[in-house]
């Protein structure tokens, strides 16, 4: 009687999710005029953190090619937060230089702006602990609480609620 040997599994050949979804994303970016998704995914590195905090690429509009003529540069449409639109507009030359440097040729000739909230979710900033003065004020109003740790915790909680 022969012994049955257990079959050992081979090495896993897991592919990164980005490779599996590459075709899906490539089609979506192509519909918006982006030849490469890196302009969107690396926007903060291309435009700089100051500009990327208030503007993001929405789409690229390419003019129709005319036979026998060189391809004209595209218009990059940026979504810009309302109050910063004027400031970003004044930085248009800098943005054009940075984007064209990224592409390696004059792919973008002008910018267009759409005022709207940015699509990315902002991370809420966590407030720091309340200052000692406000904690002490709340602690005075707590009255007679024998447990000092409980009284201190309630004072911090009250000061945090009062601050917000």
Major sheet size, sense and barrel closure: 3 strands, mixed
Average pLDDT level: 83
Order of SSEs: HHHHHEEHHEHH
What share of the residues does DSSP label as strand, in percent? 5-15%
CA distance, first residue to last residue: 78 Å
The count of strands amounts to 3
Indicate the overall shape. Answer: flat
Indicate the structural class.
alpha+beta
Task: Write out the strand line-up for the largest beta sheet, numbering strands in chain order.
Answer: 1-2-3
Instruction: Please compute the radius of gyration using only Cα atoms.
Output: 28 Å
Q: Can you name the CATH architecture of the largest domain?
A: 2-Layer Sandwich
Pfam family, one: DciA
Protein name: RNA-binding protein
InterPro entries: DciA-like (IPR007922), DUF1159 (IPR010593)
């Amino acid at each position: 009687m022969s012994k049955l040997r257990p079959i050992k599994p081979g090495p896993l050949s897991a592919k990164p999710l980005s490779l599996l979804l590459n075709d899906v994303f490539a089609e979506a970016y192509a519909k918006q005029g982006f030849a490469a998704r890196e302009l969107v995914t690396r926007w903060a590195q291309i435009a700089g953190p100051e500009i990327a905090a208030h503007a993001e690429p929405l789409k690229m509009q390419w003019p129709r090619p005319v036979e026998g003529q060189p391809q004209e540069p595209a218009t990059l449409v940026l979504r810009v937060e309302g109050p910063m639109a004027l400031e970003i507009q004044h930085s248009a030359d800098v943005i054009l230089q940075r984007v064209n440097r990224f592409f390696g040729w004059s792919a973008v000739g002008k910018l267009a702006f759409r005022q709207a909230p940015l699509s990315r979710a902002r991370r809420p900033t966590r407030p720091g602990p309340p200052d000692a003065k406000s904690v002490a004020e709340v602690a005075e109003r707590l009255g007679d609480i024998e447990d000092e740790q409980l009284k201190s915790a309630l004072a911090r909680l009250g000061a945090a609620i009062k601050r917000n």
